[in-house]
Amino acid sequence: MQTFAFLLFCKPYPPTFKQFQIYAAFMQTKIGWTKLNFDGSSKGKAGKGSIGGLFRNHKADFLLGYAEPIGRANSIIAELAALRRGLELVLENGWSDVWLKGDAKTLLQIMAQRR
Q1: d(C-alpha 57, C-alpha 49), whole Å
Q2: What is the DSSP code (8-state) at residue 25?
Q3: Domain contains 44
Q4: CATH of residue 81
Q5: Residue 106 lies in domain
Q6: If we measure between CA atoms, which residue out of 36, 38, 40 comes closest to residue 62?
Q7: Tens of pLDDT along 12-68?
Q8: Which SS3 state, helix, strand or coil, does residue 83 take?
């Protein structure tokens, strides 16, 4: 499995305080697969929420992205809305082999327990 790494620097560069680097990697999917990275966020416990996600093919080429406001929501609802919108786009585009990637531990626990 190959990874593609990107090096990001904080701005302004050079920073006035301690310099730092962030390494991000795209883990390549199997040939023929599509990867969905999704995320949801909210301001406070039940503030304005928004969702976003992007699809890439096995070469890490951009296929499709989305970003939308969802109104008032907590963080779990926002994460669920981001996943739901991503899955709607999977169906609309006829993709069948899809790798889902999100960062909400609680969402994964809910899905694992099938609640």
Answers
A1: 28
A2: E
A3: yes
A4: 3.30.420.10
A5: 32-113
A6: 36
A7: 444 444 444 545 555 677 899 999 999 999 998 889 999 999 999 999 899 999 999
A8: helix
